[in-house]
Amino acid sequence: MLEEKLYMKIKNGVGRAIADFDLIEEGDRIAVAVSGGKDSYALLHILESLRKRAPIRYELLAINIDSGYPGYRADIIEEHLARHGFAYHMEKTEHYQIIQEKRRPGSSYCSICARLKRGALYVLAKQFKCNKLALGHHMDDFIETLLLNQFFVGSLKAMAAKMLADNGETTVIRPLVYVPEKDIIPFAKGNGYPVVCCKCPACGVADLQRKKMKELLSSLEKDNPHVKRSMLRALSNVQPRYLLDPNLRRN
Fold first, then answer.
1. Domain range for 218
2. What is the pLDDT along the chain (251 residues), one digit of tens a residue?
3. What's 179's domain CATH number?
4. Cα angle at 58 between 188 and 76, to 5 degrees?
5. Does a structural domain hold residue 133?
6. Within a domain: residue 83?
7. Within its chain, how far is the Cα of 231 from the centroid?
8. What are phi and psi of 202, to 5 degrees?
9. Does the pTM of the predicted model rise above 0.85?
């Protein structure tokens, strides 16, 4: 019963995002990045469920990037994809070796690893004739990124639900924008998704700054349980007149 309720809640959230942002259109071929984490599994299964009943035709291709970290169990992910009948591609890379050579001492693995993975996903999307790339960022990711940029970068930006990638060819979509992480966790557990750690040295250790944002939001939720949804709505209710960017004033 709980799994069915969560399924409907997440499915409805994804469906609303697709409608609000025109994420999926007739004839789309969508590469879905599947890392082995709970979010990407949930995204893939929900998109497939919607695809079967959609009034339009679109295709899905699950793509996994193996960065080459020792002990990474890509075989577990592949077995899951095959067992559920997904079209998929497993890409083995030498990203770990590149990171070892290029990373500055004391710097984060995550930033350089993310750039390498994203570049590989763009190349594979083009190779397999996918016009869109679906990523598993959920509501919390959007809000935490907004706060991180405000507090530590000095910019007012988060993520886009739909945007043209830097390569000018692939459209990146994030259908989980309306789905909170607190719903994905029990949904993934209830469905027995075989979560796989990437096995990088930072795996399982939350980024310190992002962890602080999670703690801040958790504290705010005690007084206002709807604070995350309010912040997400704020991203769709921008009033440039009351901001300080001179470029906006000129417009």
1. 2-237
2. 667 899 999 999 999 999 999 999 999 999 999 999 999 999 999 999 999 999 999 999 999 999 988 889 999 999 999 999 999 999 999 887 888 777 777 666 677 888 889 999 999 999 999 999 999 999 999 999 999 999 989 999 999 999 999 888 999 999 999 999 999 999 999 999 999 988 777 665 557 788 899 999 999 999 999 999 999 999 999 998 898 988 876 65
3. 3.40.50.620
4. 35
5. yes
6. yes
7. 18
8. -95, 0
9. yes
